[in-house]
Design brief:
The chain is 82% helix and 0% strand. With 433 residues, the chain is an all-alpha fold. The protein has one domain: Growth Hormone, Chain: A. Helix 2 packs antiparallel against helix 5 and helix 12 runs antiparallel to helix 15. The chain starts with 7 loop residues before the first helix and ends with a helix.
């Protein structure tokens, strides 16, 4: 493609994102893909969260525990599908399956006399979906783009998730009163089904535009990925590189849980309406900030300074933020930390983490990655929730003292990020040791 063939909008995109002309269609289509996914999820999430107010803390805690175990089962079944389903049908089948499940839940809400069990099952299933759908998406992206393209493009593609996270909640916010929460499930189902033709288009663009047909695929790998359905779990525990990614996520969930519980406790004296307003304002700030950072900053950080600094930058900020919380444990400080943590994760840490998977083979990407993204993540949520309770209720630590513990964890998190970034840049180092 010559310069004369490139539109003014494409030239602007090239300057803003550091994108090559032949990458534009695939990148914009990937942006649209994750936008649609996240819009569907953010329509479903308030439906789920509205249910939780009807249950006690103990009931919700048990639902979190069930979420962990069902996540592990779902990943195992997905590993079996990876082994048996033709690769080109794998990713669309995943989203088609979830769309069908949501349709069944909708009909369940219409015919069930007592909705409690249906609602609780829906709560758990959305929690499984919340990590599964985005993990599969990034597996697909790591298979679509090369190792050299990912640092430049994943930040911009990740901005599609932030845009969907801005648009999606507007639908229940403005229309749930008129159409009812159950009908929101149908809207999200239609959006999920709309991703299936997008996936087919991207599979064609991988060859026609990106010319990446040989990047991750061998000649005997085009039909079925194959392998043991549980090999993702085995590969995870045997591979130091994957264990490092798992530790990185586990430490992230520690910080996430600590900040969430600290904020929850500080907001206990506020009314439910005031708490809702604060959480909604944080969502708006996080998604807006994430969009700006992902569009104009992330790709340049990763390309110019490398993955070690990219992965360590947000944890270092969190160390400072938690020390500030220890000095001034008030609502405004913790709210600010929560905004920085979430925006930094969505815009920088998550795309950087996904770049790590462009350095592994296809079976690892589609089997071990969900183990890390879903089972390790949900296990970390469960363990860290109990750890926070042990520190505050069991040991009687103050909010400030817990913040100091969190700062130490964040420092370790930064160190793991530096290690992983170096292994990504120099994979031979580990094998030569």
């Amino acid at each position: 493609m010559t310069n004369s063939d490139v539109s003014p909008a494409a030239r602007l995109l090239e300057k803003a994102v550091n994108i090559e002309p032949q990458e534009i269609r695939a990148t914009l289509t990937s942006f649209a893909f994750v936008f649609t996914l996240m819009a569907a999820y953010y329509i479903l999430r308030p439906v789920r969260d509205a249910m939780a107010s009807d249950w006690t803390d103990a009931e919700v805690s048990w639902l979190w525990t069930f979420t962990f175990f069902f996540s592990a089962i779902a990943v195992s079944l997905y590993g079996g599908a990876v082994s048996r389903v033709r690769f080109q049908r794998l990713v669309p089948s995943v989203y088609g399956f979830f769309a069908t499940s949501f349709l069944l839940f909708y009909f369940g809400t219409q015919v069930a006399g007592d909705r409690v069990l249906v609602d609780k099952a829906f709560y758990v299933w959305i929690s499984v979906f919340s990590l599964f759908h985005i993990s599969v998406f990034w597996s697909f992206m790591a298979d679509l783009f090369s190792k050299t393209q990912a640092p430049r493009l994943f930040g911009f593609i990740g901005a599609g998730a932030s845009t969907g996270a801005l648009v999606g909640p507007a639908i229940p916010a403005f229309f749930s009163g008129a159409i009812g929460t159950d009908n929101l499930i149908l809207i999200a189902t239609l959006l999920l089904l709309a991703t299936i033709p997008i996936i087919g288009l991207l599979q064609n663009l991988k060859t026609s535009d990106l010319h990446n047909e040989g990047v991750h695929v061998s000649s005997n790998d085009l039909e079925f990925i194959g392998g043991n359905p549980l090999s993702g779990f085995v590969d995870f525990v045997k591979n130091p590189y994957l264990l490092g990614i798992g530790l990185f996520i586990l430490l992230y969930t520690s910080i996430s849980s600590f900040v969430y519980f600290e904020l929850k406790n500080l907001l206990a004296d506020y009314s439910r309406a005031e708490r809702s307003q604060i959480w909604a304002s944080m969502d708006l700030a996080v998604n807006s900030l994430t969009l700006l950072i992902a569009l104009f900053v992330t790709g340049r950080i990763a390309s110019r300074y490398g993955l070690p600094l990219t992965l360590a930058s947000v944890p270092v900020l969190i160390v400072g933020g938690l020390l500030l919380v220890a000095a001034a444990p008030v609502v405004s400080v913790v709210v600010g930390l929560q905004i920085v943590r979430r925006a930094g994760n969505y815009a920088i840490t998550r795309p950087g983490r996904e770049m790590l998977f462009t350095a592994v083979d296809r079976e690892t990407r589609f089997k071990a990655k969900p183990v890390i993204d879903i089972v390790v993540y949900r296990g970390g949520d469960m363990l860290n929730a109990w750890a926070f309770t042990a520190l505050t209720t069991g040991l009687g630590l103050s909010l400030a003292a817990v913040a100091v513990v969190g700062a130490a964890i964040a420092a370790l998190w930064a160190g793991v990020g530096i290690y992983l970034g170096r292994q990504f840049a120099n994979p031979a180092e580990e094998s030569s040791q």
